[in-house]
Design a protein that fits this description.
Elements lengths: L5 E7 L2 E7 L17 H7 L2 E7 L5 E9 L7 E3 L24 H4 L10 E9 L9 E4 L12 E5 L2 E7 L7 E5 L15 H22 L4 H8 L8 H13 L5 H8 L8 H12 L4 H18 L7 H4 L6 H19 L5 H13 L1 H4 L5 H10 L3
Antiparallel strand pairs: 1-2, 3-4, 3-6, 4-5, 6-7, 6-8, 8-9, 9-10
Length: about 375
């Protein structure tokens, strides 16, 4: 099953919330509201990462260091989509406080002096026609701005990236690459050395995981993937969940152990998804058993909830919100594996959620709707 996201606009007593229900892409704490370069994602996806210098030829760069891949120092890479516009200027000439009144300039590829440095996060593209060398694409999301968010410009001791400065409707503009660390001063900007260390850490984890997924025994592979389900890197976390789902039936027991471990409570919906992928129809009884526990929970808790319970604790670790997401995903898992032996549980849960207004109004009744899908299979 391909990974994806099921989203619905929830209306809760006049408050609309766009909620990402789990089918694997958005993890709490990792949701990106704006488009921007990512050290984590770009390092993981790139086939080649190179520190380069600008040359007198626009779009042509000489490689100073290779951080990943087979492009050697001293070679040249040509990236036509990084050719500056005629009116582009160097970062040092942007007005103080930009983007501000420099917004139009900041949306363009800067024209840095010859010998200035960039770090390029690239993917090899197949050679076309009679070309002897492969072309390059960026490691960012595919689109017209792909190469913009696959490069880091170095100016003085600071690094700069393209990002949406305010919200998803704002244009990509060049701004400082900040240090996101409790130890760093507020607003600190990454240096080239900071960036190099960050890339190296991501690549170390990626190499570790390549060895893990090469393990042929599904249960052993699942056991070795467990630590990465708590990785601080989104790419490693996503890869771990994905590979758990590919580990096969022998991995189901390990995933079940994780589902029962409070340390993995935040990952519960994602692990349900992985269990379904790993075990297929064979996981129906396990999912139904867990749904029976959730039915018991909501039967005891539901009537005591206020009509505004969803908004009373809006934190990412809200126990009730997490439980709701868990219940939804358990039903969705039963639907996916077509476990019709779970009809009795589904009927009871549906009737409960429709009988209590404080449960019925959440998500416009999507838990009950998911139960209806399973019931319709009888």
């Amino acid at each position: 099953m391909a990974a994806g996201v099921s989203m619905r606009l929830w209306r809760v007593r006049g408050v609309h919330c766009l909620v990402v229900m789990v089918v694997l892409m958005a993890r709490p704490g990792f949701a990106a509201l704006r488009v921007a370069f990512s050290v984590d994602g770009s390092s993981w996806r790139a086939t080649n990462i190179v520190l380069v210098e600008t040359t007198p030829i626009d779009g042509a760069f000489d490689v100073v260091e290779s951080w990943k891949g087979d492009v050697s120092a001293g070679s040249r890479v040509v990236i036509p989509r990084l050719i500056p516009a005629a009116n582009a200027v160097a970062i040092s000439r942007y007005t103080k406080g930009w983007p501000g009144d420099s917004m139009d300039v900041a949306t363009q590829i800067p024209r840095q002096p010859v010998g200035s440095r960039l770090v390029l996060f690239l993917r090899k593209a197949a050679a076309g026609g009679e070309a002897e060398e492969p072309g390059w694409t960026g490691s960012g999301p595919v689109g017209e701005d792909e190469m913009k968010i696959s490069a880091v410009w170095v100016d003085g001791d600071e690094t700069y990236i393209f990002q949406q400065q305010w919200d998803t409707s704002s244009p990509l503009s060049l701004g400082p690459l900040r240090v996101f660390s409790k130890e760093a001063p507020r607003g600190a900007v990454q240096t080239l050395e900071d960036l190099k260390r960050g890339v190296a850490e991501v690549l170390r984890v990626q190499d570790e995981m390549k060895a893990v997924v090469a393990e042929q025994d599904g249960r052993v592979r699942a056991m070795r993937l467990k630590p990465y389900v708590h990785s601080k890197f989104y790419s490693a976390w996503f890869y771990a969940i994905e590979e758990l789902g590919k580990a096969g039936p022998s991995a189901v027991s390990v995933i079940g152990e994780m589902l029962g471990d409070p340390a993995y409570s935040e990952e519960f919906p994602y692990l349900v998804h992985a269990m379904v992928n790993a075990g297929g129809s064979g996981v129906g009884p396990e999912l139904n058993r867990r749904l029976e526990n959730d039915l018991e929970f909501w039967s005891g808790k539901g009537s005591s909830l206020s009509m505004n319970w969803w908004n009373e604790d809006a934190s990412p670790r809200s126990p009730l919100r997490s439980r709701y997401g868990r219940t939804y995903q358990l039903v969705a898992g039963l639907v996916e594996v077509k476990y019709t032996a779970g009809l009795y549980t589904a009927v009871q849960l549906r009737d409960l959620f429709r009988s209590l207004p404080q449960l019925a109004e959440i998500g416009d009744g999507q838990v009950a709707e998911e139960c209806d899908k399973l019931i319709a299979m009888k």
